[in-house]
Amino acid sequence: MVMDILERSLETQVFHERDPRAFVRYELRDDARLRQLGRRSPAPTVVFKALCESQSVGRLLNDFAPARGIWVYRRYEAVVRSHVRKWNGMPETMCILAEDDTATDGWRGRGMSEDTRRFVRSCYHPALSNESACALFWYMRNVLFFEQRLDGDERMRLVSYDRLLEHPAMAARDLFAFLGLKFRPNVCSFVSAKASPSTQGEAPNIDAPIRAACEDLLARLNATAANGPERQIS
Q1: I need a surface site. Which of 38, 113, 164, 214 has the fewest CB within 10 A?
Q2: 151 CB-side CA count, 13 A
Q3: Given this model, what pLDDT does residue 115 score?
Q4: Residue whose C-alpha is closest to residue 108's, from 128, 126, 87, 82
Q5: DSSP the chain
């Protein structure tokens, strides 16, 4: 949704994760290719969706200076509801990460800290449900925001997906100001909380230690966002 909002700007060229010019199997191509795409773009601002590169945001900001980054997060329960509709193999991923200290299972475990791996190891058991595994994955990938100290980086903007649904114009205006883009109200006219069915429903069945860790991380993300420019959105 954030990518679609940015794509409606007349000042951007947006590369989605299925675009073969910039991605291979949803992963960003090498830096040289990305720079080439940037140089050839007719737009002053080029946007790449770093879907599998959360662990490399700090490096990307440095290597592509004066780049800016947007970290979008969403309530873990809504993410779990969405994930379990499409994927059922997350327990196997957690098994791989828990049993082998060097394993990453592709991009999923890249950049994992020792503290996070110990937590994954403590949470994994043979009967781990897909819901619990998906919640653990949400924790793994979002804790990277703080582990890279991006909360103190002025080049980063933490964006709450849920607040964007509730206050699209205010959130989008702030985002465009951060990126130096001209804001037009129609860029977010399609956004509606009703368009997100996974925001409602029964609470997923998540193991207690994983749920507690996700709740703590969500509170930390919300507090960080509330202390930034989004604090004006109530």
Answers
A1: 113
A2: 15
A3: 96
A4: 87
A5: -HHHHHHTSTTEEEE-TT-TTTEETTEE--HHHHHHHHHH-SSSEEEE--TT-GGGHHHHHHHTSS--EEEEE--HHHHHHHHHHH---HHHHHHHHHH-TT--TTTTTTT--HHHHHHHHHH--TT--HHHHHHHHHHHHHTHHHHTTGGG-TTEEEEEHHHHHHSHHHHHHHHHHHHT----GGGGTT--GGG-GGGSSSPP---HHHHHHHHHHHHHHHHHHHTTGGGG--
Q: What is the identity of the amino acid at 159? A: V
User: What digits encode the pLDDT tens for the residues 166-201?
Assistant: 999 999 999 999 999 999 999 999 987 655 554 566
* Parallel/antiparallel/unpaired status of strands 69-73 and 45-48: unpaired
Task: Spell out the domains of the chain, with CATH numbers in brackets.
Answer: 2-232 (3.40.50)
pLDDT digits (tens, 9 = 90+) for 23-42: 999 999 999 999 999 999 99
For the stretch 129-140, pLDDT in tens is 999 999 999 999
With cut-offs at 50, 70 and 90, classify the pLDDT of residue 231. Answer: very low
State the Cα–Cα distance between residues 117 and 150, nearest whole angstrom.
20
> Distance (Å, rounded) from C-alpha 165 to C-alpha 223?
18
Quote the tokens at residue 175: 């985002």
